[in-house]
From TrEMBL:
Its EC number is 2.7.1.24. It holds the Pfam family CoaE. The keyword Transferase applies. Catalyzes the phosphorylation of the 3'-hydroxyl group of dephosphocoenzyme A to form coenzyme A. PANTHER family: BIFUNCTIONAL COENZYME A SYNTHASE-RELATED (PTHR10695:SF46), DEPHOSPHO-COA KINASE-RELATED (PTHR10695). Pathway: Cofactor biosynthesis; coenzyme A biosynthesis; CoA from (R)-pantothenate: step 5/5. It comes from Lentilactobacillus kefiri (Lactobacillus kefiri). GO terms for cellular component: cytoplasm. This is Dephospho-CoA kinase. Belongs to the CoaE family.
Length: 196
C-alpha cells in the first residue's frame, strides 16, 4: 500500500519545481493539472459538460477547450468558478483514483494539486507538503509566467486559500523564495526522512 503525499501551495509558488524534481528521483507523481487537462480534452464527457454550462464560446475552432476564455469567465465570477469545480471535479477524482491504483506497490506516491484544500482532496492524503513563497515573489512570478496584469494576477491568487492557511495545515513546508538549489535541498531532506 503506497503512502500518498499531497503536494500543494499557491499559484506560482514553485510547486512544479518540487514535483518535477520528485519525478526525476523516481517518485510517482499524479499531477492534478495534467489530470484536469486530460478530463477536459477534446471529445471528452468533461468538456461536453463544460460547454453545456458555459456555452460554445469556450471552444476553439479545432474543438479543444479555450482555457483563456474559460478563465476570463470563472475568474471574474466566484459563482461561475464554483460551478466549474462542481462540474469537473467528479471527472478529476475518478482519474486520480484510476492512476493511484497503478501505484499501490510503491512506497510513496505524490498527488500534486494546487487546489488540494479548496477542492476537498486533503482528506485523501496521508501527509501534506506545502510549497511556500513570499507574496511579493509569488505575484511577480505569476505576472511574468502568465503574462497577467497585477489586477488579474491578484484575482487568481485570491481565488485560492491564503498560503499561510495552507502552511498552518501542512506537515512539512518547503520554502521557495530563494534559489532552486536551496529549495531542492529541503526536498532532499524531507525525502530522506520519508524513506527511513
Amino acid at each position: 500500500m503506497t503512502k500518498l503525499v499531497g503536494l500543494t501551495g499557491g499559484i506560482a509558488t514553485g510547486k512544479s519545481l518540487v514535483s518535477g524534481y520528485l519525478q526525476k528521483k523516481g517518485i510517482p507523481v499524479i499531477d492534478a493539472d495534467l489530470v484536469t487537462h486530460k478530463v477536459e480534452a477534446k471529445g471528452t464527457p468533461g468538456l461536453e459538460a463544460l460547454v453545456k454550462a458555459f456555452g460554445p464560446q469556450i471552444i476553439l475552432s479545432d474543438g479543444a477547450l479555450n482555457r483563456s476564455e474559460l478563465g476570463k469567465i470563472v475568474f471574474n465570477n466566484p459563482s461561475d468558478l464554483k460551478q466549474l469545480v462542481r462540474i469537473i471535479d467528479p471527472f478529476i477524482r475518478s482519474e486520480i483514483f484510476k492512476q493511484l491504483a497503478a501505484y499501490q506497490s510503491v512506497p510513496l506516491t505524490v498527488l500534486d494539486a494546487p487546489t488540494l484544500f479548496e477542492n476537498g482532496y486533503a482528506h485523501l492524503v496521508d501527509e501534506l507538503v506545502v510549497v511556500y513563497t513570499d507574496p511579493v515573489t509569488q505575484l511577480h512570478r505569476l505576472m511574468k509566467r502568465n503574462k497577467l496584469s497585477i489586477v488579474n494576477a491578484n484575482k487568481r491568487i485570491q481565488n485560492q486559500w491564503p498560503l499561510q492557511t495552507k502552511c498552518n495545515l501542512a506537515d512539512t513546508i518547503i520554502y521557495n523564495s530563494g534559489t532552486a538549489e536551496q529549495t531542492l535541498l529541503q526536498v532532499d531532506n524531507w525525502l530522506a526522512n520519508e524513506m527511513k
